[in-house]
Amino acid sequence: MQLSKLVKAMVVAIPVLALAACSSAPDDTSSTTADGTTTTGQDRRGVETGAADRVLSPEEQRQQRFAELRQEYIIYFDFDTSEVRGEFAELLAAHADYLVRNPSARVVIEGHTDERGTPEYNIALGERRAQATADYLRNLGVSSSQMTTVSYGEEKPLARGSNERAWSQNRRAVLVY
Asked: Which ranges carry the OmpA-like domain (predicted)?
């Protein structure tokens, strides 16, 4: 008989517990924005609430990083050289990844120089810079048929002026899609 009373007490208590766990007043400051994103806040006890953000896979992180890098399209060169600097390796890898994944995409690589040197020398140097950039992309798997090079030499400066700041901005290759 004791067991029967205990079971009856549990049956009565369970719905009460379920009701006690529900509340009509919100405990947090979360809200849903127009794009469906839920923002989270803290409940009355100061405990952080809300769903955890989805963790990106390493490949998704790489693609996100490459998309950010592709917003940059200028490769700068040191004075009187056409050697691609190591600091542009990741930038060029991002562009190469895009071109390899999109075989119908085409890019024109423009070579530029600063104003120092003869026009003939600068056209040749601009061509070497554009070609060095194309070679770098080719080594990363980009098809030659996707790339065209052109040299403008000193004819299209990015920065006006006869000082190191202007010259350093004009020594470049530009990727144009």
From this structure: 64-177
Domain residue extents for the chain: 58-176
CB 138 within 8 A of CB 144: yes
Distance of CA 89 to the CA centre of its chain: 15
The pTM for the full model equals: 0.69
In this predicted model, what pLDDT tens digit does every residue of 9-65 receive, in sequence order? 444 444 444 444 444 444 444 444 444 444 455 556 666 666 667 899 999 998 999
- Distance between CA atoms of residues 119 and 155, nearest Å: 9
DSSP code string of 134-146? HHHHHHTT--GGG
CB within 8 Å of 97: residues ≥ 6 apart: 66, 140
CB within 8 Å of 116: residues ≥ 6 apart:
167
Residue 168 reports pLDDT greater than 70: yes
Tokens 């003869």, residue located: 118
Provide mean pLDDT across the span 137-151. 98
Q: How far apart are CA 105 and CA 122, in angstroms?
A: 29
